[in-house]
Design a protein that fits this description.
Rossmann fold, alpha+beta, single chain, binds iron/sulfur cluster, 491 residues, seven-stranded antiparallel beta sheet, 23 strands
Length: 491
């Protein structure tokens, strides 16, 4: 990732990764990468890219700023032939949205050639970069992928065995990552950090166009395999390396062990596609359970109540709340699908006016009702406050906020674009204070117990650091330094 300091009122995932190997050398897999990346677009909207090759032939790469549809246009990728490929979608900031920061990252030297896609954050980036610079490596950007690529090149000097290279790399890196690498020999390797912060899954499908051939897929989320009408066959384990090559299928190679796991809880609450499964757990089921749990924890006593989701992120939790409380679910706020990027607008006033354009309130549904408003989280509170006001201006008798995630109080250092602690509304304010500031009649958050029960994983299997400040990193991070780094530019 590239460090940023952008004003937005939703926390942003940074990237989605995708890789394919097709047994049939005559296929052009760019079409599969396109479909996979379209399904992963929610993980990053600032840049997209593709790298394609045939075994033992050059890797070609195309990447640019923009949505998948804009970047992977037929004109742009028509020369990219091959049966092995990588794809990437990236969320960056306005300042860092340059084609150089887009992925796949292509590394070529006299010794080694490969392409890499990465989702995550390397928390010991500065230390690793300094060591590499002392050895003579030159850097042109501030992205983690460049440091990882240079590390791979330096390890490659000592061994040509890619499994050993990746294992050494994992022992050097601290932080969160899901990575896919394509080597010039035609091998594809996918691996997750030993704590498994970021999801990564695999699957396969058969092509039927002009004779059957098998295609192996690695992807951030199962929705990308579903988009190809494929079958999800597994989830890369934390610390595991999965290897695919033409004609040999896909198999697991080695695992770097860890005493605990730390899958990001926010993937379930907000980031991941509703239809995805993360480590075999349905995101949709979790979101519904979160809503049902909120209904038990914080019911609203009224004979005129309706449950209203904040679209789209509050939908499944609202359904869970409505079903558990036997109340009607109403779509009283309709999203304007053409206004999607409020987060890139600098300054509070512009953001406020865009929220107005983003949601259309349905006055007839709202007037005279006690609204139980369901959303996934409160970050700065700007959007939530605006929505509460909008509901009341349209005749709501009262607005009761129910939030499917516990209060977000601390920044993330694991690859999610977060505001600073000062900007996180729940960090320095009690629940009552937040409720008052947002103009709501009542406010209730999910509990930590409710979150873990809904996901079905324990505290030892999840990262909840933005909720409880328990950062599960390998080395004890200097938190103030990290906050400094993550709120400014890397120096
Ligand atoms: S700190 Fe929060 S957003 Fe970051 S990885 Fe942990 S749970 Fe996810």
């Amino acid at each position: 990732m590239h460090r940023s300091n952008v004003n937005h009122d939703k926390i942003r995932e940074q990237c989605g990764v995708f890789g394919v190997v097709c047994d049939d050398g005559s296929k052009n897999v760019a079409q599969y990468v396109y479909s996979g990346l379209m399904a992963l677009q929610h993980r990053g909207q600032e840049a997209a890219g593709i790298a394609v090759m045939r075994p033992n032939s050059p890797i070609t790469c195309f990447k640019d700023c923009g949505l998948v549809n804009d970047v992977l246009r037929p004109d742009n990728i028509k020369g990219l032939f091959g049966n092995i490929a990588l794809g990437h979608v990236r969320y960056g900031t306005v300042a860092s949205s340059t084609p150089e920061c887009a992925q796949p990252w292509f590394f070529e030297s006299n010794e080694v050639t490969f392409a890499i896609v990465f989702n995550g954050t390397i928390t010991n980036y500065a230390v690793l970069r300094k060591k590499l610079e002392e050895k003579g490596h030159i850097f042109t950007t501030e992205v983690d992928t460049e440091v990882i690529s240079n590390l791979i090149a330096s390890i490659h000097v000592t061994t040509k065995d890619w499994i050993a290279i990746i294992q050494s790399l994992m022992n050097l890196l601290d932080g969160s990552y899901a990575i896919i690498i394509m080597t010039s020999k035609g091998d594809l390797y996918g691996f997750r950090d030993p704590l498994g912060f970021k999801p990564l899954c695999f699957g396969e499908f058969s092509t039927s166009n002009g004779g059957e051939s098998r295609v192996q897929v690695l992807a951030s989320e199962t929705c990308a395999i579903d988009a190809l009408l494929g079958k999800v066959t597994g989830h890369v384990k934390p610390g595991e390396i999965v290897h695919a090559r033409v004609g040999e299928g896909l198999h697991s190679e080695k695992v770097v062990s860890s005493p605990r796991r730390a899958l990001c809880q926010f993937e379930f609450v907000y980031f991941a596609n509703n239809t995805s499964e993360l480590d075999g757990i349905s995101v949709y089921d979790v979101r519904k359970k979160l809503g049902a749990n909120l209904a038990r924890l914080a019911p609203v006593s009224s004979n005129n109540a309706i449950v209203v989701p904040v679209p789209d992120s509050g939908r499944s939790a609202a359904l869970g709340y409505a079903q558990a409380s036997n109340l009607p679910l109403e779509e009283a706020l309709i999203k304007n699908r053409y206004i999607t990027r409020t987060f890139i607008m600098p300054g509070q006033d512009k953001r406020r006016s865009l929220v107005n354009l983003k949601l259309f309130p349905d006055k007839r549904t709202i007037a005279g009702k006690d609204i139980i408003l369901i959303d996934d989280s409160i970050v700065r509170g700007t959007t939530t406050e605006k929505i509460v006001r909008m509901l009341k201006a349209n005749g709501a008798r009262s607005v009761h906020l129910r939030i499917s995630c516990p209060p977000i109080k601390f920044p993330c250092y694991m690859g999610i674009d977060f505001p600073t602690r000062q900007e996180l509304m729940a960090s320095y304010h009690s629940v009552d204070e937040v409720c008052k500031m947002l103009g709501a009649d009542s406010l209730a958050y999910q509990t930590m117990e409710g979150l873990m029960e809904s996901i079905g994983l324990t505290k030892n299997e999840l990262c909840c650091a933005c909720l409880d400040r328990d950062y599960p990193l390998k080395s004890q991070p200097v938190l103030d330094d990290l906050e400094q780094t993550f709120t400014g530019k890397r120096k």
